[in-house]
Amino acid sequence: MPGRIITVYAAKGGCGKTTVATNLAVTLCARGTRRVCLVDLDLQFGDVACVLGLRTDRSLCDAVPWADSLTVENVAVLMTPFRPGLDCLLAPTGPGEASLITNELIDELLYVLRLIYDYVVVDTPAQFNTTVLSALDAADHQVLVATPERPSLKNLRMTLDVLDLLYGANTRSVVVNRSDTHAGLTNADVDQLVRSPVTVQLPNWTDVPASINRGEPLTAGCPDHPVSQAVRRLADLLAASDGRCSRDPPSV
Question: Are 80 and 88 in contact (CB under 8 A)?
Answer without folding.
Answer: yes
